[in-house]
Amino acid sequence: MKVQINEKFMIPLTAGNAVGKGWTSATQHRPMGVTWHWTASWDLQGCRDTIGGSHPAQQGIASAHYGVGRSFSEGIDRYVSLDNRSWHAGKNQLLRWDGQPSNDRTKGARATIGVETVNIGYARDGVKAGADWIKAHSPNGKQAMLIQPWTEEQIAMMIQAGREIVERWPAITWQDHHGHHDVCPGYKVDVAGFPFARVLRGIYEDPGIPDIWSPFWTATQRQRALVKLGYDLGRFGPNGDGVDGDWGRASDVALSAFQKQNDLVVNGYWTTFVSRAAWNVLVARGIDPDSLI
After folding, report:
1. Distance of CA 231 to CAs 183, 222, 235, Å?
2. What tens digit of pLDDT does each residue of 126-156 get?
3. Rounded to whole angstroms, how far apart are CA atoms 117 and 191?
4. Which of 13, 152, 180, 280 is most deeply packed, by most CB within 10 A?
5. Nearest 5°: phi and psi at 160?
């Protein structure tokens, strides 16, 4: 089902609002990728109140190009035209769209399209997990989380929005999508557990896009990958190979070594960029990444 995109809450392109006209020379006057976010709210109205329209709570501070609800009845909001910049993923951003160090000219607000998806995030005080919530760890491996899953109708709408993005900006490939936590490691954890493979296969109509994300959602999976890649995690765990789900110093050292050896920013955070590199190396060695699950 294709839904009509709601433009009622477009942010005016005027001074004082979290929008910018056009794309800059820093990115060849086009967006370089797509940054996916979660709203940490229960419904799309919460997103509208926060960033949409003329007088949102975050006026002049934050915005996004789209807000995607959890059902067809909520639908999709457009807050900023794809020909203009929304202000998202700027604060405390350390990495740009390709995993390399960022600067003021390549922040998300200047370089990527921002998509907010309605999702409360992870279970915590006041937010009780459902039976189907997703198990994942934070990028530093320290925090175990149960994450609200995205709905089937929402996934269909994310695919619809994504197709509109790549129709307008066809240079954006499936490898140019990432989560807010990927470019703001240490500051954000959204969108851990995001169904990237399903969404991107739908956007690009390519079932061959590999799932480089879900084999590495948890600390245990990441440790298994590092052991398969030849790193010594000690003799802890049921198999005496260091795989115990407790992300400690040995895991940190191994991850940093892997990042250095694969020309990644060495920061000790497991990002999409690390997942892609680990998946590629495992496959090159004849190891099925799905065996880590």
Report:
1. 26, 11, 12
2. 999 999 999 999 999 999 999 999 999 999 9
3. 9
4. 180
5. -60, -45
